[in-house]
Amino acid sequence: MGVELLESSSVFAASMVACGNALAPFVDWDLLTVVRAGSASPLWDRVDVVQPVLWAMMVSLAAVWKSLGVEPAAVVGHSQGEIAAAVVAGALTLADGARVVALRSQAIVALAGKGGMASIGEPVDAVRARIETWGDRLSVAAVNGPTSTVVSGEAAAIDALVAACEAAEVRARKIAVDYASHSREVEAIRDAVLEALAPIGPQVGTTAFYSTVSGSAPGTVTDATTLDAAYWYRNLRETVELAPTITALAAGGHHHFVEISPHAILRFALEETLGEAGVVLGTLRRDDGGMMRMLRSAGEAFTRGVAVDWAALFAGRTRDPRLVLPTYPFEHERFWFDAPARRGDARHLGLAVVEHPLLPAALDTASGTTIRTGRIALATQPWLAGHALHGTAVVPATAILELVLSSGEALVLDELTLHAPLRLPALGAIDVQLTLAGEGERTVHLYSRAADAGAGAAWTEHASGVVRPSPDAAGSDEAIAAWPPAAAPIDVDDLYDALAARGYEYGAAFRGVQAAWHAGARVFAEVALPDDTDATGFVVHPALLDAALQVASWPGFTPAPRAGELLLPFAWTGVRLHRTRATALRVQLTRTGDRIRVLACDLDGQPVLTADALVLRAVAADAIAAAAPTAGALFAIEWQAAAGEAGTAGEATVLAVPTGASVAHTTHHVLGALQAWLRAEHPGAARLVVVTERGVATAAGDPAPDPAHAAVWGLVRVAQSEN
């Protein structure tokens, strides 16, 4: 519990000494003696020892964070953690904080043996409905997260609740206490708590204090002068409303949350509560309480946007051990040779040279089919890396549209359907073919396969459609004359942050939206390519077209997809290209049902591209990552099946998870095995290897993971984080 930190951090040690002196008038034991003894001390079984020690730890860890320049903008506490939070905020003096935690925990001793608490993996409303059976014998003690609720009450009722949850395959775990905080049981010690804490004098703090006590307004700064004896009784009696408070703080602009404790037990609940709205960081971990752990946590905070004063670590030293970084930028060097593409070579192979960056060669076959071909790689077209969906680089749908439109002059694209995303590998390349067959009205297909796949390897079809020549295809009476439009403006300052949070990750070339407006079933946008984007060879640069469609994601225009899904172009109808080489556009999107009409004009208002209809479809994010791989690599990682039954090999113990059982049976079996292994004595380097089958998908095309074995992966990850 931070013994190593006590011995290695002068700031932490000094704060612990001060906390020990503040506790001394109220306790019959010594803080530093108990901490140094660790689990060997018999006092750890006493609530009136554990709570004051945890209070001292939290106050002292906050002092270490402050010594590194991390000053809190606000403090929030959970149950007894509010006592430490009040001291850190300056609302209670150290002496008053010691009085509250010491004397109140001594009063709790009278409740020992009469109650219990349990953590239930369900939303609070579901838990309230579940515990109605037991009436006032059970209460909601804490709302920690969307699916993390704590219940307290009579011991027998807690046991029955846990059993009922397990039977219903709902996660439930008893907390290792024999009293029932935040329930009616606390009323028995009300007078004792009020009398013991009457002398405290709360004061105006130096840092905003946000109360989590039920009845407080979430997200509203608490008047620190109200933190009197009555407040600290309510803090013990009422429900802890942590999740609503954290949600309100995030909405108010607080986005970095540091759990200051010996073990970040609330981190998962906080992350679940915040989602993409904030960053949650820990301090120490169980059995990892030294200065290196503290510095790793500070380093993690620094990389997530928290300002850390690293120079403070070296104050007073004669030599600064920090490394001096080079003055030039780090380079990502590759040591494979990329032979430069030489366009002139195509003619010697019987191919026609086409001035297009992606499909630079063409072949007119004897059967009347035209084939446009090229090789695409992030190494040679790095701007494509700026179009990623949930971390997977994908050729934008607008690039596929542009390839079709560039295949001939005066074309009308009657229809184009997109079948599968065109993934790009981090290394290697893909071969791409666009075929046009027939005369007059021609069918068009787009295919790809790995560049090193070899002769006879299968091609993946990504799109198909129909094009036809039209002498007047470039003509149009449409225009956007009035600009800016008579519509309400849309704030686009945070557009790309919002899109990234939903899985659309855009690089510099694709961040072209300059302004946007909305009016009923229409949205407007002004988009432009960055100055350093080379548009040579494209009829309309795909990144410019993509930016033209990005405002379709505005919530008032397109219904939001379900969680874990992305809206992507699925089908185009009636597309006409009127002008080429545009680098900026004025765009009008008009929605009718599930169809979007597109009018894209140049800055003079004259049409560049029109589309009678664009249909978007929701695609599961995991379907994009699981799409057929389109490139191999010289070196690759492959999963090999592990064989063997339970047994030992050297210092590694192998646990083979049984197949064919239910989720509940399998996880209970593995949980028992993990607990038994942890209780047993092992050499210092002992390892437990858990072997699953289909616990995760390891390659594209794999069947869906086995639910029971997938649950084991989650269980083992939790066990790893705790041990």
N- to C-terminal distance: 14 Å
Largest sheet features: 14 strands, antiparallel
Number of helices: 20
Which spans have pLDDT < 50 for at least 5 consecutive residues?
340-344, 629-637, 644-649
**Average pLDDT, all residues:** 88
Strand order of the largest sheet: 9-10-11-15-16-17-14-22-25-24-23-21-20-18
List keywords for this structure.
723 residues; alpha+beta; 14-stranded antiparallel sheet; 4-stranded antiparallel sheet; 28 strands
Describe the model.
- With 723 residues, this protein is of the alpha+beta class.
- Helix content is 29%, strand content 23%.
- It contains 20 helices and 28 strands.
SSE topology:
Layout: H1 3-8, H2 10-23, H3 31-37, H4 47-67, E1 74-76, H5 81-89, H6 94-108, E2 115-120, H7 124-130, E3 138-145, E4 148-154, H8 155-167, E5 172-175, H9 190-197, E6 208-210, H10 229-237, H11 242-251, E7 256-258, H12 267-274, E8 279-281, H13 291-303, H14 345-348, E9 352-353, E10 361-364, E11 370-376, E12 387-389, E13 392-393, H15 397-405, E14 411-418, E15 430-437, E16 442-450, E17 460-469, E18 488-490, H16 495-501, E19 504-506, E20 513-519, E21 522-528, H17 542-550, E22 565-577, E23 584-592, E24 595-601, E25 607-620, H18 621-625, E26 647-649, E27 652-656, H19 663-679, E28 687-691, H20 707-722
Parallel strand pairs: 1-6, 7-8, 27-28
Antiparallel strand pairs: 2-4, 2-5, 3-4, 9-10, 10-11, 11-15, 12-13, 12-19, 14-17, 14-22, 15-16, 16-17, 18-20, 20-21, 21-23, 22-25, 23-24, 24-25, 26-27
Helix pairs in contact: 2-4, 2-6, 4-5, 4-6, 5-6, 6-9, 9-10, 11-12, 15-17, 19-20
